[in-house]
Each structure stands twice: as structure tokens, then as C-alpha cells.
Amino acid sequence: MSTTTLAASTATEQRRARRRPGGPTLSRPGFAWALPATLFFGLFALAPLVLVVVLSFTSWAGLGSPEFVGLDNWQRLARDPVMINSLWLSVLLTALGVLVQTPLSLLIGVWAAGPQRNRAVLSAIFFLPLLLSATAVSVLWRALLDPNFGVPGQAPWLFGDGNLFGSRTGAIAVLVFVGSWQFIPFHALIYQGAARAVPAVLYQAAEVDGAGRWEQFRHVTLPQLRNAMITSVVLMVVGGLTTFDTVLILTQGGPGTDTTITAYHMYEQAFRSFDFGAGAAIALLLVVVATVISLIVVRVSGYDKMRSTMEGL
Q: Which letter does DSSP use for residue 148 in this model?
């Protein structure tokens, strides 16, 4: 019997089973099951996004009625050097975050998935930053890195004058470090769960073939963690482009505008200059940029094809 004939026969039997009195009924869940999630998404995601789109074509100071100004907000943003610099800075911080967090979280996650002694205790201690909010983490590190009373001021041989926030390089390094300290545990959890799902038979087969620990990690673990890595990177990209509270508390966009990322520039335009139309335009642009970059990552990586790492098992 050919494959086509066998598939057709199986489908016919399934249809008969659905119609057979007293037999098991196979049916997909109705739309009512998705209705609560659909309403929630529409109310708290789509509706605000539509309002932001409308507001981006208006002039509004927060009081009275918005005044339609067409493309004026967008034209001003195109001529704003701070806006252009903030986009490049947001992409730079996001790229640095991905480059720093991915290898560290990958190694820690794979290690935490193993049977090492005291692994559970050490993992629990390492994952403590996940319990803190971004605001609490930023306040903590702002105090620890204070140039007068913090750690840099007590170690001039390592930090020079101790003012890490006084230079562009130092401020960017602080933002990357604090973001990594907080979110590496989260991404390590992703890799830990994925590493524990790798079938042990793959490592046994590799060991029989004479593969050492490094060869097993390179040829077995990494390929099996491919989908988890793409998921982690997409989350890093979206989180890096939309981060705000860390910059607000640690650097306030300084020195000067050297750490004024797009999200912080949106805050300045809307809540300091009371130009909510321009702030909405920046927010919409940020959504578009984050979406495009995420889609590029998914497309280039082939994740959109949802190829299983379990094929052949």
C-alpha cells in the first residue's frame, strides 16, 4: 500500500470514528475558549496602539483636545539629531546586551541543568536578581557605583577618578553591566529548561563515538538549544530596545545626551516637554523598529519554520 493510500485510509477511519455512535468525539476547541485572551489583547494592546497612532498625528500638551497636525511630528523627529542618535544608541546597547548575556546565560543555564553537587543552592542564589524589580536593581547599583561613596571611589587604582557616569564609555558600560546582572538569570532559566529536555540517548551515542565533554556540548547541546537561543535573543532585543527605568535612574540620559536612548527620549518629549504628539510618534517608531528587528532575527534564523530539534529520534 502506498503512503498516499495509507494516509487517505487513516483520514477516513478518523472521520468514521467521529460519526460512530458512542465512540470518541474529536473536535477542535471553539472560538469561545480564545475569547477572553482575545478581548484582553484587544483592550490592553491593540486599542492603546491605535490611540498612539492617532496621537502621533496630533499636537497635544495633555490638556484640552488634541489638534491634528498631519506629519509635522514625524518631520520634526527626522530633523532631530537627538532622536537619530538615540536610535543608534538603542541598537548599540541592545547589541552589547545580546553579546554579553547570550554566552554567559547559555553556559550558566547548561551548568545549572547538570547533576553537580550543591547545584540547586548555587542556582537559587544566582537567580535572586529575578526577584527584584528593575527600579530596585537600578537604585541598588546607583548607590554601589556612586563616585563619592560607592565602590569606585574606594578603588581608584581600578576605576580612576571613580566617576563611571561622567563619560560616555563608562555610562554605557554601567548600563550594559546592570542590565546583564539582572537579566542573565532569566535567560539562564530558559537554557536550563531546554538543556534538561535534551534526550540522554544523544549524549550516550556521542560518548560511544568517543566525543569528549566539549565535543558533546558543541555537537549535541548547542544544536538542541537552537530554538531556545532564538527565543532568548528575541526577548533580549525587545527588552533592550524598550528599556527605560534603568536609564532614568542610573544616568538620566547623561552625560549630556550620551545615554539618551529612544525610550528615554520619548519620556522627555512627552512628560517633560509636554509634547505628547511627538512622544507618541517616537513610541510608534520604537514599536516598528523592535518588530522589524525581531522579525529579521526570526526569519534569518529559520525559527519561523518551527523545525523540530527532535527529528530522527
A: T
CA distances from 227 to 8, 61, 309 (A): 33, 45, 8
The structure's pTM equals 0.84
Q: For the stretch 66-83, what's the b/e string if a residue is b when 16 or more beta carbons lie within 10 angstroms of its beta carbon?
A: beebeeebbebbeeeebb
Catalogue all structural domains in the chain, each as residue range(s) with its CATH number.
81-305 (1.10.3720.10)
Give the Cα separation of 150 and 132 in Å (integer). Answer: 21
**Cα 102 from Cα 80, distance rounded (Å):** 33
Q: Which three cell numbers stand for residue 172?
A: 554605557
Neighbours of 164 (CB within 10 A): 22
State pLDDT tens for residues 252-311. 999 999 999 999 999 999 999 999 999 999 999 999 998 898 888 888 877 666 555 554
Task: Dump pLDDT digits (tens) for 158-211.
Answer: 888 888 999 999 999 999 999 999 999 999 999 999 999 999 999 999 999 898
Residue-wise pLDDT tens digits, 117-173: 777 788 888 888 888 899 999 999 999 999 888 888 888 888 888 889 999 999 999
Q: Strand 58-59 to strand 67-68: parallel, antiparallel, or no bridges (unpaired)?
A: antiparallel
Please tell me whether the peptide bond between 255 and the residue prior to it is cis, using omega within 30 degrees of 0. Answer: yes
| Amino acid found at 163 | N
